[in-house]
Amino acid sequence: MLPSHTNGSLPLKLILTGHRKRLLAHLAYDVVLPTYDDKACAKFETEQDKERNSQAFTYAIHALYQTLKSLEGRGTGTESRALTLDIYDIYAPMDGFHREKYEEHKEQCESWQRDDLWEHRYEHSILRLLEHPELPSLLSPSSFNMYMSSRTSRIVEPKSALLMARKLSNVHSITLNLSDDEKKYPHIRQQSRY
User: Fold this and answer.
1) Fewest CB atoms within 10 A around its CB: which of 48, 50, 91, 188?
2) Calpha distance 51→16 (Å, rounded)
3) Tens digits of per-residue pLDDT, 88-116?
4) Where are any strands of DSSP class E within the chain?
């Protein structure tokens, strides 16, 4: 996995240099959202948190697409090589089992020594791809997959996933496993579809 970073760096640019560009056939990409502090674990995400996460998600996806675009058409061989692109996981470092102190926090919750919402903190938060018209079209991906489970990953609005897939000119296979099970706020579910 090559996680994105909110500090502006993208390891992919550092790794895919010279002849390595021709060898890229499968990319599993994680998006790492901004972290939150220990106190925030016991509170639902605010509208400001949701917007900040959508901005970080947008930045990571734009950086990925721009990096892949820079590999196309430069005599690297990537223009004819089939690429499988997986958006594998989207999380903040304090989300569930991604936490450094996961076991310790779990035990503290079980013994009533810690208040924590775990995945309920963000269960009604849906990530949106902002500024999608500026997302570059890509030739190399022939397969695009998103595996988002509300138990292990953040939820991406279906509309955003489709907008990402739409920018892949030569895609032959698309697999989207997205959560669309918002029951408490049906208007959010409706908005994320269209």
Assistant:
1) 48
2) 31
3) 889 999 888 778 777 776 877 788 888 87
4) 2-3, 26-32, 83-91, 126-127, 141-147, 155-156, 173-177
